[in-house]
Amino acid sequence: MSRPVWLYIAAVVILAVALIAPMHFAAVGIRWWIELGVLQLLFLICDSTSTPLTSRQSAWSPSSSATLAAVVLLGPVGAAMVGAISVFSLRRPLIVAERLFNGAMYAVSGYAAGRTFIALHGDVGRPLPHMFPMIIWPFAAAAAVHVITNHGLLWGALRLTRKDSGLRDRGRLESSLTLLLASDLGYAVLGLLIAALWTVVGAFAAVLVLVPLFVARWAMGQFAEQQRAYAATMEALCQAVETKDFYTRGHSERVSRGSGMIAREIGMRPDRADAISYAGMLHDVGKLGVPTKVLQKNGALTEEEYAAIQLHPMRGLEIVREIGFLDEALTGIMHHHERIDGKGYPMGLAADEIPEFARIIAVADAFDSMTSNRSYRQARGIDQAVRELRKGAGSQFDPALVEAFITALQREGWTLPEPAAAPLDHQTVTAQDHDDPTAPLRVVESL
Amino acid sequence: MTRPRRCGWSRACDGQAAVTAHHQPAERWSSWQAMDSGRLLLLAAAGMLTVAAIAHTAAVHIRPAAVHVAVAFGILIALGELLRLALPGGREAAPIATAGAMAYALLLYVKYLPGHLPPPPVPALQVIAVAAIGMTIGALPHMAAGRSVGVTGMASRLVAVSCVAFIFRPLAGLHLIATQWWLAAGVMTVLLIFGCLVDAVIGALIRADDLGARFAVALWDEMRVQWPLGAAVGASAMIITFATEVMGITGLAVFVVPLLVTQLAFRRYAGIRSTYLQTVRALARVTEVGGYVESGHSHRVSVLAVAVGRELGMSEPDLLDLEYAALMHDIGQLSLRDPIPGGATVLVSRGDQQRIAELGAEVIAKAGVLDRVAELVRCQSLPARGNDPVPPVGSRIIRAANAFDDLVGGSTDRDRSADALERLRLDTSSEYDAGVIEALSEVAGRRRPSRV
C-alpha cells in the first residue's frame, strides 16, 4: 500500500477515535450499554449474512440499519460505536488495514448522522407515539448524511488505491445507482422500524426484524444452488446433443461464452447477458433434427439436404419454445444464421431486422467454428479467424459486434478447444460445417 | 391428444404445470367443473364467514375512529393479494396479504398514548370482513388479466385468519395481554403458528384430493414448503402489530419492507425452479426431434411415472427427481448411431437397454448435481426381481411406465391399455414390480372415469 493510502486510513481512524473518545461514558446507564451491545450484535449478524438480491455484485446487507436505529436510540456516539464494530466483521478475510478503515468509516458516518438528527431537533431515545410522523424528517436527513459520508469516504479510498475505479459503461452505472438508492432507502426504513419496535418490545425488535431477512437469505441460497444446478444440467444436456458429432464437442459451451463476452462488452444488462449465454448454449440444439447422413455427407448437398440444414434453427426453436424465460433468447436461436446482407436463413432478414441476440450469436458461432478442428481442415489461429471475421463484417456479421468481440478477446483472451484427436471408427464426424464462413456448404446447382 | 376433463393423468401434471401460472381459460373452466366436495366445503365456509362478517360489521358500524385503520389494513391486504407469489409445486401464496390480515387480527393499539384510555377492541367479525374485502379487491386485477383467480387459496387464507381472529380478539381485551408485551408476543407466536398449520392442513387436503396423493405425505410436503415463508410472514405480522402501536397507521407500507425482501428472494427461487423444470421438459424432447423416440413419449412417461409415484406415497422432492429421470430416461439413445425403430426400448435386447440406460446416466451425472436422477436412469433397465441390490422404486416406476407407454403410446383406448397392463402383470414375477403395476393400473383406470 502506498503512502497516501496509509495517511488517508490513519486520518479517518484518528477522526473516528476523536469523535468517540470525548463522550462522558460514566453518565449513561446500564440500559444504554445493553442496547448498544444488541445493536452491535445486530450489525455484525446483518453484515455477515448479506443477501444478494438482484445480481452477483450487489448484496443487500442491511447492517447500516443497525447504525441508523442507534442514531435514534443512542445518539451520535452510540451510532459511531455501532458502526465501529465492523472492525470485527466476519464476512471476508479482510486485512487489518481494511478492517480498521471500515470500522472508522462506519463510525464517522454514524456520528455525522447522529449529529444531523439532533441538529434538526430529533429526540434521542426510544421514540414515543406522539413523535410520529414528525420524527421522519430529522431521521431522513440523518439517513441521507449517513449515506453521503459513507460513500464519500469509500470513494476517497478507492480513488487512492485504484486508478481506474470508474465503471466501464453507463448502463451498468445507472442500474447500480438505482439499486444503491433503493437499498439505501430500504436500510433507512428498516432502521426507523427497529427503533420504533424497540419502544414496545425492547431488544426483541432485533429478532423480529432478523427473521424475514434470514428467510430471504435462505431463499437466495436455494436460488443460487438451483441456478448452479440449472446451468450444469443445461450444459450436460447440450453436451449430450453434441455427442452426435465428434468435432463439434464443446462448441455450444464456447459459443455461449463468446456471446456472453460480446454482451458484456456492449454493456448489456446482466439479466440479458445471462439470457444470451443460455441462447448461445442452445443455438444448435435443432441440429439433432438434421438426419445424420446429411451432416456426414462429403460432397455437394442436394437442394433437399441443404433445406434440411437450413431448417435446424427452426427445429431448435421448436424444442426450446416452451422454456418461458428465454423470450428474447428464442429469437437469437431462430435467427443465428441470418446475414447482414439478407442472404442468410431461415428467413433472409437483413441488417437491423435481425434481432440483436442473433447477430451476437452469429459472430461467436463463426469464430468458434473457425478456431476448431474440422475433418476437412485444421483449426485456424485466433489472428486468422479475427481477419476472417473482419472480412465478413458488413456482409455476414454486424461490424459493431465484430469489433466488440475483438476488444473482448484482447482483454479476456480465448481458451481454444483441446485439439481433437483423430476420431475413433464408430464416432460420427461432420464432413462439412454449416457454421464455417470460410468453407460455405456446397450445394448442387438446381437446373 | 385431447385432454380428458377429469383424469388422474392430466390433473397430476397440472399440479406441476401450474408453476408457470399460465392457465388456459378452457382449463380453468374444466377445473371449475371438476370441483370436488372438499373444495366446495372450503369455499362455502369462507363464503358464509364473509357474508356473516360483512353483515355484522355493517349492522353495528365501525367506530369512526377505527375506520381509517380498517381502510388502511384493507388496502395493505389488497396490495398483498395483488403481489402473489408462486411457490414450487404449483402453490400460490400471498405473504404480504397474510401478514397484513394476521396483524389486523392481532392488533392491540394504534398509537397508544399513555394516559389515554385504550380503545375498545375490534370485533373478530370486523377483521374477517376487512380481510375478505381486501382479498377480493386484490384478486380483481388477476381476474382482469386472465390469470387464475385463486379462490381456493384465498378461502384457505381467510379461514386461517378467521381462526386466529376468533381466538385472539377476546383475549386482546384482557389487561395482562394489553400491558405485558412479552405475554402478548408469546400468545401471538402460538396463534400465528396455529394459523400457519390451519393453512397447511387445508392446502394438504385440497392437494391430496386434487392429485391423488396421500394426506400425510401431502401435509408433510406442504409444511416443508411453507414453513420458511410462514416464519417470515409470522414475524412480519408481529412487526406490523407492534410498530403500529408506536408509528400509527401511516407507516403501514413501511412495516412490510423486510417481508418484501423475503418475497423478492422467494420469487427468484421459484422462478429458477420452474425454469429448470421447463428446460428439462423441453430438452428431453431432443430425442423426439432426432427421431429416436415417438413424439410425446418422454412427457407421457413422466406424467405417468409421477402419478404412479404419488399413488405409492412418494414425497415431493422424490417426485421431482422421478420426473426429471422419467423425462430424460431415453437421453442415452442420443449416443446411439442409428435410432431404434419406433424408439420403443421395450422391444430391444436386455443388453441394449442396459447400454442406453448407462449412457443416459452418464450424461446426467456429468451435470454433477443430479446424481440421484442419474442413479434412477441407470437402474431403469434392471428387472425388478433377482437383482441385488433391488433397483430404487423410482427406477422400477420408470421401467413400468416406459413399457406401458411403448405398448400403448398416446392412445387412450381402454382395451389397449388393459391388454398392456395384462402383459406387464404377466411379467411381475421377474421384470416388473407388482406393487408398481397395481398402482399403474389404478392410475390408468382413472384416465376416463366419465366413460366407465
Identify the notable features of this structure and list them briefly.
heterodimer, A: 447 residues, mainly alpha, Arp2/3 complex 21 kDa subunit ARPC3, Hypothetical protein af1432, 2 domains, two-stranded antiparallel sheet, 17 helices, 2 strands, elongated, B: 452 residues, two-stranded antiparallel ribbon, disordered N terminus
How would you describe the overall organization of this protein?
The complex is a heterodimer of chains A (447) and B (452). With 447 residues, chain A is mostly helical. Chain A has helices at residues 3-20, 30-48, 63-73, 76-84, 96-119, 136-161, 170-201, 204-242, 251-265, 270-282, 292-296, 303-310, 312-320, 327-334, 356-370, 382-392, 399-412, and strands spanning 51-52, 59-60. In chain A, helix 3 (63-73) packs across helix 7 (170-201) and helix 16 runs antiparallel to helix 17 (399-412). Residues 164-171 of chain A have low confidence and may be disordered. Chain B is built from 20 helices and two strands. Chain B folds into two domains: 35-271, no CATH class; 284-451, Hypothetical protein af1432 (Orthogonal Bundle), CATH 1.10.3210.10. The two termini of chain B are 19 Å apart. With 452 residues, chain B is mainly α. The chains are: A mainly alpha (447), B mainly alpha (452). Chains A and B meet through helix 7, helix 8 and helix 13 of A and helix 9, helix 10, helix 12 and helix 16 of B.
